[in-house]
Specification:
Layout lengths: L6 H6 L1 H4 L5 H10 L1 E5 L5 H11 L3 E6 L23 H12 L4 E6 L7 H6 L3 E4 L4 H14 L3 E7 L2 E7 L7 H4 L12 H4 L5 H18 L8 E6 L4 E6 L31 H8 L5 E2 L1 H9 L5 E4 L3 H4 L8 E2 L17 E5 L4 H12 L3 E5 L2 H8 L8
Parallel strand pairs: 1-2, 1-4, 2-3, 4-5, 9-13, 10-11, 10-12, 12-13
Antiparallel strand pairs: 5-6, 6-7, 7-8
Helix pairs in contact: 4-5, 4-10, 11-14
Length: 385
């Protein structure tokens, strides 16, 4: 039985109630609904705000990050005073200000195998606002296994995508991508960049689909894959049928339990192997060790393998820039007898560079944490990105 609306709620949601597709009965269904937003960042911000404004009775938020100044360009749930705060605390305050009638349940943890079932089982619809492949596959698999529709979205630079997965009779994310894409096609989430308004468009579409699923109205994006090109201001729709050979929702599924997908967005295939090879006696150097050597007049050659636009934002003094993509053909610019330390933004690209250099006979170490660690621990006056 759906809950009654108070006089104040009838006034607040009057524009909804006037719609014959919603009416008071539909607004009561929204009040009774429970929607889980996995992620309180770029996609989760507009989705949660519009779900709260629409009167969804309970909104769950899963996140474990803190607000960084670089989030503010697109994560509209958070403001400048929230920098350094938990995203969940910031989001709870913002949603309460938006609609104090809405109950907000927060889960300060990564969405994982250990909590996926309890989370998905407790909600009617999941809004997937994750930004990495392991989480996307895990959200998808949990939604399929436990029968909860997934209002999915994804953003990259100027393009966004949206669909509804795991709805009865419809496809799932693995029907589109049975396995994670090849490692070399997986961008680094923090380094690819994204147009600030793009998650607003896609997150709002996700909220729309979640509301339609709760109400049982319209035609949700089930079996349809929406692609938005912000540069050309163009929407395209692709048909996406359920794959009978899908490993989890197909006729003869091979996935019956939740498991972690071992390729992270911030790394590439083989990076964990590279790190295990590189770690050790001379494989890594901390930023404090590098600073001590610089101060002692025994600085190694500092090789920056980022892109030029990144080096224009911040740099380690005395470093030499050779982007990772150019490194194989520019090895002759480096002295094989020199002591090298390699850095990028956070340590991923530099790990690949170190593996390449060591394979060619260079003595190279990876700077742990990259230039972000240098800024955090050595030179906080430099801008982060």
């Amino acid at each position: 039985m759906t809950p009654d609306l108070s006089a104040g709620e009838r006034q607040r949601y009057r524009r909804h109630i006037l719609l014959p597709e919603i009416g008071e009965a539909g607004q009561r269904r929204l009040k009774a609904a429970r929607v889980l937003c996995v992620g309180a960042g770029g996609l989760g911000s507009p989705a949660a705000l519009y779900l709260a404004a629409a009167g969804v009775g309970t909104i769950g938020l899963v996140d474990f990050d803190v607000v960084d100044v670089t989030n503010l360009q697109r994560q509209i749930m958070h403001g400048t005073p929230d920098v350094g705060r938990s995203k969940l605390a910031s989001a709870r305050d913002r949603l309460a200000a938006m609609n104090p009638e809405v109950r907000v349940e927060t889960f300060d943890a990564p969405f994982s195998v250990s909590n996926a079932k309890s989370l998905v089982d407790a909600f009617d619809v999941v809004v997937d606002g994750t930004d990495n492949f392991p989480a996307r596959y895990l959200v998808n698999d949990a939604c399929v296994l436990y029968g909860t529709p997934n209002a999915w979205g994804s953003i990259f630079r100027f393009e966004g995508q949206a669909a509804v997965f795991a709805a009865p009779g419809g496809p799932c994310y693995r029907c589109l991508h049975p396995e994670p894409p090849p490692a070399d096609l997986v961008p680094n989430c923090a380094e690819a960049g994204v147009l600030g308004v793009l998650p607003g468009v896609i997150g709002t579409i996700q909220a729309t689909e979640a509301i339609k699923l709760v109400l049982g109205v319209g035609q949700p994006l089930v079996g349809r894959f929406l692609v938005y090109d912000a540069l050309r201001m163009r929407f395209r729709e692709l048909k996406l049928a359920r794959d009978p050979d899908c490993p989890i929702c197909g006729t003869h599924p091979t996935i019956h339990t939740l498991e972690d997908v071992g390729v992270a967005c911030s790394t590439k295939k083989g990076d964990s192997h590279l790190f295990s090879q590189i770690k050790g006696t001379t494989g890594e150097m901390t930023v404090t060790e590098l600073k001590a050597r610089i101060d002692a007049g025994a600085a190694p050659v500092i090789l920056d393998v980022r892109e030029p636009f990144e080096a224009a934002i911040c740099t380690i003094p005395g470093s030499r820039l050779i982007p990772l993509g150019e490194l194989p053909r520019r090895l002759d610019e480096l002295d094989p007898s020199a002591d090298l330390v390699v850095h990028c933004k956070s340590g991923v690209r530099s790990a690949r560079a170190v593996a390449l250099l060591r394979g060619r006979g260079f003595a190279a170490a990876n700077l742990t944490g990259g230039i972000l660690a240098w800024i955090n621990e050595i030179d906080p006056a430099q801008p982060r990105y």
